[in-house]
Task: structure prediction
Amino acid sequence: MSAWDIIRDATPQLVSACIAYTIPIAIVSFIIGLTIAVITALVKISHRGGLFNIVKAFFYFYVWLFRSTPLLVQLFIVFFGLPYLRIAGIIPDGIRLTPVVAGIITFSLNTGAYASETIRGAILSIPDGQWEAAYSLGMTKRKVLWRIILPQASRVSLPPLSNEFIGLVKDTSLAASITIVEMFEVSQQIAAENYQPLIMYILVAAIYAVICSVLTILQSYLEKRVSRYSVSN
Result:
């Protein structure tokens, strides 16, 4: 079988796996992770004291933990390790998750940890005068945050968050390690059948490159749109 025949036969299977698992897992994980990131960033910049410091310490620990350990190790702990977390009377059989659920949870938490620092930095980059001007108009802190600060911070954080999503799409290839039949896993299965791993890995790399190139173009378009909006205002 020629290289062209292998590519012709394998491409539909890889694209199908991409549509069924790679892209959905990346999108769902990013949405959940972004939600976690916003909450984490808001908690970390809060000036509340008392018992709230315990909550803040938890989020600091969460960010430190997921930024300090490899994503692959995190996937293994969630999927292979949690079933051994047995607590008598509470979870006697451990925590058993399907591969897809374990992958989404891990990718979401990992993304949330990294993106939270991006969002926190974006919020802190907004001049204090914005807060003071809004307060002078009688706005509450919550209204200032949601109507004035976060819209501006979202424009600042758009480029790094877009890069985070592109990186997440590539990181989904690690899901193959916990038996999710996504694009890279399918390429490995096909390679085991046709004994042509080089062709298969180059092919899957090319598909990832196409996807990430499209996302990069979209990122550039969004940045230009946001930039025009900012100038006009």
The chain has a mean pLDDT of 92. DSSP finds eight helices and no strands in the chain. The CA atoms of residues 16 and 183 lie 8 Å apart.
